[in-house]
Automatic annotation (TrEMBL):
This is Ubiquinone biosynthesis protein UbiJ. It comes from Pseudorhodoferax soli. It comes from the Bacteria. InterPro entries: UbiJ. PANTHER family: UBIQUINONE BIOSYNTHESIS ACCESSORY FACTOR UBIJ, UBIQUINONE BIOSYNTHESIS PROTEIN UBIJ. Keywords: Ubiquinone. GO terms for biological process: ubiquinone biosynthetic process.
């Protein structure tokens, strides 16, 4: 007899709500602007990342998941900017996992979701390099605001919470896959 997870209801609810509710256009645009600021902040800490983007200045990448789309272009400074809707995408990256719950579970396990890639191969290789190698050192940014020791402590707490959450997801995934005898 197979048993279902008590979290399957939550996953189904997220799927239904996520497909019917859409945020207002102004909120999406503001989120995109803030995301570009954050991405550029992270990129400015990695000279090699900026050098890779300079090679692709003016080229556009479209990220898609379900009905959510983010359209970015590389600037001459090696940073990112929002591309307008009329700019054709040189590269389109589409997350193939439709379920928000399954996508969250994949990400929490530390795995990469399935991606369909269409477009320029060299641009795709450089975007992949950025995803693999560029990381936000949030602890360093926190230390500028609250000092080194508190930032380090918060970093340790965050890493411990992340490890515990990954362990929980792994255990929950394993339990769901087993059939009691």
């Amino acid at each position: 007899m197979a048993t279902s997870s008590p979290f399957s209801f939550l996953g189904n609810l997220l799927d239904r709500v996520g497909s019917s509710l859409q945020p207002p256009t102004w909120a999406v645009e503001e989120f995109h602007r803030r995301l570009v600021l954050l991405l550029n902040h992270v990129l400015m800490q990695e000279a090699q990342a900026m050098d890779r983007l300079v090679r692709h200045q003016g080229r556009a990448v479209r990220f898609q998941w379900r009905h959510f789309t983010l359209h970015l272009k590389a600037t001459p400074a090696g940073l990112l900017d929002l591309a307008d809707a009329l700019t054709p995408a040189d590269l389109t990256l589409t997350v193939t996992e439709e379920s928000p719950a399954a996508l969250a579970q994949t990400l929490l396990r530390g795995d990469k979701p399935g991606i369909r890639i269409e477009g320029d191969v060299q641009l795709a290789a450089d975007v992949n390099w950025l995803i693999e190698h560029v990381r936000w050192d949030i602890e360093e940014d926190l230390s500028r605001v609250i000092g080194d020791a508190p930032a380090h402590t918060l970093g340790q707490v965050g890493r411990a919470a992340s490890a515990a959450l990954k362990k929980f997801v792994a255990l929950a995934s394993g339990a769901r896959g087993k059939n009691p005898a």
